[in-house]
Design a protein that fits this description.
Rossmann fold; 7 helices; 32% helix
């Protein structure tokens, strides 16, 4: 009997770089629970550049804190590079975050009594990088970000744009697979903000996966896609 051959089974596609399934975050209150994130399901591919947008109080920064493993009090599933984050103990979750994630905050979060070079070295000290390797990484990063002349200055001696540049450099000095940015240009004037966003675009072109939170349509254009949050829900 003749006929068409049955189709060959297709190989499964690659696993997402980052995957969330039914993730929820809530707080107890008198009449039940206040939900900040509701049934969040999201896939991020390797090398993606995702922008999370939405009104104030939508849950954007909370979601970013979960992705960065700064917040472990949630339910649902979170996988990063085939690691089941939701199943990890807090200590192991923190270690995973230190290994794979860099975080850029709106308020810079530099250490005031450390120089630029010392601020850059801090993340490496948490990762047991040998002193010689740490020194070499700081030197390379200072050169890459054009900050060699400012290595011995303190944050208070820098402009806002320069402080944020140091914050970005600190976030990527250990070459994280995932860079998270929470309103990274919120305290900068337009030209400084543009410099930071162009730096993000270059990092993304080099293979760094980025998720940013922003209210800025201009900043969103540097990314590849936008996820809208409203009242804790992902909306179309």
């Amino acid at each position: 009997m003749s006929g068409a051959a049955p189709p060959s089974p297709q190989a499964p596609g690659p696993s997402p770089f980052l995957s969330l399934r039914n993730l929820e975050k809530s707080f107890p209150q008198a009449d039940g629970r206040l939900f900040v994130l509701r049934r969040i399901s999201l896939d991020v591919a390797p090398g993606d550049f995702v922008t999370i947008m939405g009104p104030s109080g939508a849950g954007k920064s909370t979601l970013l804190a979960v992705l960065g493993m700064l917040d472990g009090d949630w339910t649902g599933e979170y996988r990063l590079l085939d690691n089941a984050v939701h199943a990890l103990k807090p200590k192991d979750r923190s270690a995973l975050g230190r290994r794979y994630v860099g975080f850029v905050f709106q308020q810079y979060h530099l250490i005031d009594d450390l120089t630029v070079a010392e601020n850059l070295a801090m993340p490496l000290s948490y990762r047991d990088v040998k002193p010689d390797d740490r020194e070499a990484a700081v030197a390379d990063t200072l050169d890459r970000f054009g900050m060699v002349a400012k290595k011995n200055l303190y944050p208070r001696q820098l402009s806002g744009g320069q402080q944020q540049l140091v914050a970005v450099a600190r976030a990527v000095i250990h070459k994280p697979a995932l860079l998270l940015a929470d309103e990274p240009t919120g305290n900068l004037h337009s030209s400084q903000g543009k410099d930071i966003m162009e730096l993000f675009r270059d990092l993304n072109a080099g293979g760094t996966t980025i998720v940013q939170v922003t209210h800025s349509e201009d900043n969103a254009r540097y990314g590849k896609r936008v996820v809208q949050l409203r009242d804790g829900w992902i909306v179309d």
